[in-house]
Amino acid sequence: MKFPNRAHLFLAWTVWGMTGLPETALGTILFSDTFNRPDGLITNEFTYWNPTDPAGVRSPDWELGSGSFFIQGNTGWSGIPDDCSRGKLSPNALSTNCTDSAVFRLHTRRFDFNNVKVAFGLYSHGLTSTSLTPPVDWDGVHIFLRYQSEFELYYASINRRSQTAVLKKKCPGGPDNGGTYYPLTSFVPHTWSPGTWQHVSATIQTNADQTVTIALYDDNGLVVQGTDTNIGKCAPITHPGAVGIRGDNNNFKIDDFVVTEIAPSKRQVRRPVIQRYF
Questions:
Q1: I need a labelling partner for 111 at 20 to 30 A (CA). Which of 124, 151, 153, 239 fits?
Q2: Tens of pLDDT along 223-247?
């Protein structure tokens, strides 16, 4: 494995990553996946769109609406991205003909994650593009938080082609696959390069006034933090939901995916002033 001492790594994640949110404390581990199992397909979009086909490879933990998700060397892997379904060819039951992972959309089967920290190791082989998925600024990796559906969710966007990071909310109705994205923060500089393992995490919690605060961290600490104060055309998402990973034109691996409960304290949450974007 790439980490010399996984126990020390987990302890570091437990302590590190919350410094930007002193009003919270970590509690119970709710979900984890170490990906320590034989190489092969975890699940893919064929299984998602053909739920009764016995050839599908079903995971007890993960669902994938677009792309293919593999085990490779005790890590979760997107496979080599291609755009086969957009080229009128879909992945077969084992994704041996293509992956469709140029557009990768993974979420947990569980939809009961509320105030949580999501942490994992991230390794990017590099960004790609295809004739049907040309390069765009948002190519990279994005962490799904309180995922209700493909139309309603939060995401924390990191390792973007634009070398920036941002937090966004998607509301139902609009031009982006049936929804509209609303930035919760400005785009902040975030320089990154492929070929290195990173430790990435994001936290989300509902405040006493029913606003929602999200923070994104990497190895250097807090990357960006913002609060949904009723931004956009839908209310703050206060219901529990799934968590997951979105990838765009990115050949990447993840490891030691851990979801930990956040226990809010009684202290007043102090929120920054967030500019609205429309």
A1: 124
A2: 999 999 999 999 999 999 999 999 9
Q: Which two tokens stand for residue 244?
A: 């997951």
3-state secondary structure 119-155: EEEEEEEEECCCCCCCCCCCCEEEEEEEEEECCEEEE
d(CA 123, CA 116) in angstroms, rounded, equals 23
Residue 35 CB contacts under 8 Å (≥ 6 apart), including other chains: 71, 74, 75, 76, 254, 255, 256, 257
CA gap 56, 212 in Å, rounded = 37
The CA distances from residue 26 to 23, 143, 242, 250, 251, in Å, are 11, 19, 19, 31, 31
Distance CA 228, CA 199 (A): 25
86-113 tens-digit pLDDT: 667 889 999 999 999 999 999 999 999 9
Q: Where are the domains of the chain?
A: 6-31+104-264
Q: At which residue do the structure tokens 């879909």 appear?
A: 90
Q: Quick count: other Cβ atoms within 10 Å of Cβ 236?
A: 22
Q: Which CATH architecture has domain 6-31+104-264?
A: Sandwich (2.60)
